[in-house]
Amino acid sequence: MEILFVTTELAPYVKVGGLADVSAALPKTLKALGHRVTVVVPRYPAFEQAGLLVARRLTPLRLELGSRSHEVTVFDGRLSSQVDLVLLDAPGLFDREGVYGERGEDFADNHLRFAVLSRAAAELAKQREESGAPYDAVHVNDWPSALVAKYMKDLGLKTPTLLTIHNIAHQGIFPKSTLSDLGLSEDDFTVDGIEFYGSVNVLKQGILSADVVTTVSPTYAREIQTEAGGERLHGVLQSKGRVVGIVNGVDYGVWNPATDSNLVARYDAENASNKARCKGALQKELSLPLDERAPLLVNVGRIVPQKGTDLFIDALPRILRGSNAQVVVAGDGDSALIAKLEAAIEKSHGRAVFVRAAPEALVHRMFAAADIALVPSRFEPCGLVQMYAQRYGAPPVAHATGGLIDTVVDCDARLETGTGFLFEEATSDALFAATTRAISAWESSAWPALRRRVMRLDRGWERAARQYEQAYKALGTSR
């Protein structure tokens, strides 16, 4: 099959969250299964800065959106995975350092930026249909490319579309006045269309227009169809019918302590002795006390309420008082939460460190050094951090929600079963209790067996890629 995969992030070049990892790993795995995948992404400055070789097409795309015309230059390239790449360049829209915004604020013209991306991707699908060799499916991701499905239908295209919701909290909600910039009219602004409580909702339109909707775990697929978890789109999703939940995978070509060149020493499930060397190296790198008898806890992710940062901040003093643990936090995000986190770290007497906007190589070293990973997300569509931690031998402490339920099994008291430590309520008390339980387990003789068990888990992308493969095939048979 031939798949057009439209995204706004692509690791290792442009990364805000897990979408970047998915956009690199899923097409790579689909190609290994024998499919041809073309990834479409805006031409951000990062691609040129990385020295990626691309060829400019002689004929640009000329698009009409409302009363405005846009010229989009198309560049063709190839990723190191041999996946085909198309970069789309529109003057003034994508030549910025930020993907969605900067200094904590979204760009004011995001509606226009991603409408142009989506309309251009629809045009690429149109060109393929007109050539007599259409794509078998067009796969779009989250609200920034959700309008691809709408534009393709408006163009009368027959190529089926699949929309993956990576986080339903981000919906692309804009004032009604943006309709023209999106190339839409009053006829589209209805309850059965893009209208949403008096505003425009791009994700809603994508859900309505796409042939199939998927999300990134079975539990999250159920949660977003409830009033509590659907962010006011639960009714739209329920009326759509089945929402397919497919758990993301881990790219073991990138995240593997046995081959990771970022580490001072490598190790695997059968011989993890070098993990202690990694721990000592990180303690030295981050000026933590050199103490192999202190459990090292890591928390990696955006500093936002969704990720439970406030719960972690509240629990941190108790964690440090109740044990000899050391804590390393890495991430960026909400400035007010960061200020609170820095204040809490300041009172840790040198046993906790915060690294803002940590480079990816350091994140690898953090997981290799970690004994335990903390994942206190209030909600989590899938989550990759807990799976990276498991691969590197750091059983996670995680809130029982979304994809965390699908990827972490709570350990029993004897540590004979389980792959982490779950807590039910999104409170600092529950996080503290689960962390205390994990630290006690780390001190027991059963810990090495638990670590070996979590490192042996198969979280590779092939299983997920085969599920997407079946979803693409079903698109073809359902039309």
UniProtKB/TrEMBL annotation:
Q: Which UniProt keywords apply?
A: Glycogen biosynthesis, Glycosyltransferase, Transferase
Q: For this protein, what is the EC number? A: 2.4.1.21
SUPFAM superfamilies reported in the protein's UniProt record: UDP-Glycosyltransferase/glycogen phosphorylase
Reaction(s) catalysed by this chain's protein: [(1->4)-alpha-D-glucosyl](n) + ADP-alpha-D-glucose = [(1->4)-alpha-D-glucosyl](n+1) + ADP + H(+)
The pathway this protein participates in, as annotated, is: Glycan biosynthesis; glycogen biosynthesis
Give residue ranges for domain Glycosyl transferase family.
Answer: 288-443
Could you provide one GO biological process annotation from this protein's UniProt record?
glycogen biosynthetic process
> Taxonomically, which superkingdom?
Bacteria
Molecular-function GO term, any one: alpha-1,4-glucan glucosyltransferase (ADP-glucose donor) activity
Question: What are the Starch synthase catalytic domain coordinates in residue numbering?
Answer: 3-238
- By its UniProt entry, which Gene3D superfamilies does this protein fall under? Glycogen Phosphorylase B (3.40.50.2000)
> EC class of this enzyme?
transferase
Which residues bind ADP-alpha-D-glucose per the record? K15
Describe its function.
Synthesizes alpha-1,4-glucan chains using ADP-glucose.
Q: Which family does it belong to?
A: Belongs to the glycosyltransferase 1 family. Bacterial/plant glycogen synthase subfamily.
Q: What PANTHER family would the database entry show?
A: ALPHA AMYLASE DOMAIN-CONTAINING PROTEIN, GRANULE-BOUND STARCH SYNTHASE 1, CHLOROPLASTIC/AMYLOPLASTIC
What name does UniProt use for this protein? Glycogen synthase
Q: Which organism is it from?
A: Labilithrix luteola
Q: Which gene encodes it?
A: glgA
